[in-house]
Amino acid sequence: MTIAHDTFYVGGTRRNPVSTGRITVTSPNSGQVLGSVPDGAPGDIDAAVAAARAAFDDPTGWSQWAPSKRAEAMERLADALDERAPQLVQAVSSQNGMPVAVAAQLEAAFPQLLLRYYAGLGREMSFDENRPGLLGGSTLVSRVPVGVVGAIVPWNFPQALAAFKYAPALAAGCTLVIKPSPETVFDSYVLADAVDEAGIPPGVINIVPGGRELGAYLVAHPDIDKVAFTGSTAAGRNIAEVCGRMLRPVTLELGGKSAAIILDDAALDLSRIGEQLFGATLLNNGQACYLGTRVLAPKARYAEVVDVFTGLAASLTVGDSLDQATQIGPMVSEKQRERVESYIAKGRGDGARITTGGGRPRGFEAGWFVEPTVFADVDNSCAIAQEEIFGPVLSVIAYDGDDEAVRIANDSDYGLGGSVWTADHDRGVALARRIRSGTVGINGYLPDPTAPFGGVKASGLGRELGPEALSAYLAPKSIYL
Ligand code: NAD
User: Which whole number is the average pLDDT over 372-384?
Assistant: First the structure.
């Protein structure tokens, strides 16, 4: 049985679309049609923005509520999402190929963690400060919500990355129009049900799925006050140009090509650190922005590091994303598999040596599967080391001494994630400080809600998560007394 939705969640109701087009979603596991939803048209975004604007401007509405009252509503939303966790896991995994074990943690639990965290921050924060002046008077410095937020999310973590935006935005008192990616739409209807049940006032959260033109229309909409975007660097540059011209605040979480630096003293016993290595380099079928897909190995231990990653990749269970045992599911689409395979061909062409994988796994011919693949003898200037592949493909690059490791790690257009693997914590932290990226893990990589997350260089502008993200949805306002 296929899934079919006929409305959008706008202004607290299921609204009939202006659009007559439909988005059809295909299973990455089988290539079969899963169902369809309306494809948003500009008129649908107009209605959603108008609803968000009316909710924001309501003199007794969300933006004017006491932070503690907003926090209670956010906690109700977290509870409503908890109740729908199995539906969220099923919806996300069936659409984008994320293994259910990963989806359970990141797509059906992380949003609730964020909602409860930002509810707490909102409660604790003093939005008003009375500041004694130097000229006799004083100033009421108030932190006010920036307004209506256009939130654009990609398909790889559709629920978590939406929550990265709506959780701090809601705590700040903003209202939102969320545009999910066309690859992952069904889960957004589960979110809409939860928003409804939680009693979030009409118009505070509106959801209109659609493609890139619809995203561009939302970004440039005259009634949007801030844009929060996660996606590719190419789209991020376009959005930055528009927001620059419109002088519109924007947060951009873009691509990555991070380094996992194995230091010469690292303990590489797969039975002990296999899970951490997997999480830092191959999670979500290699379709995560921060993954350390460039493995930097000390020359003296090069063969050993290649063996460890070859063993790791070869040991992974490839399979249907809805199977509990699966560690590597399919690529999100046929197009994405073509992209990954074209990079594997480029790697071969550039003389890199495949130590495991490189093809399609047997027995899964119907879906968009690629074998977990490791390349040895990779030069950092090669396309597979410089460009974001977004698939389960690792490149092992040799270095000589810590300074060269840092130089190679920083020889990238990107600067989002990274990791350092060492037996010496202080040495790891000292090296992490020298890597030009927004985040680095020591002996693992696990983004935490309390810590700012984001990139430098072509990986983006601004930060999500942590108190820093709450500030990004607030603007200081001085009332001289
Ligand atoms: P994408 O840029 O093609 O699309 C992302 C979203 O933006 C989709 O909703 C799409 O419809 C919309 N969009 C595309 N072009 C747009 C435009 N010009 N204006 C407005 N909206 C537009 O990216 P994708 O292929 O769906 O996602 C994968 C990319 O996202 C990778 O590059 C990955 O690294 C990046 N990503 C980054 C982070 C991070 O936090 N830095 C997290 C996850 C994914």
Answer: 98
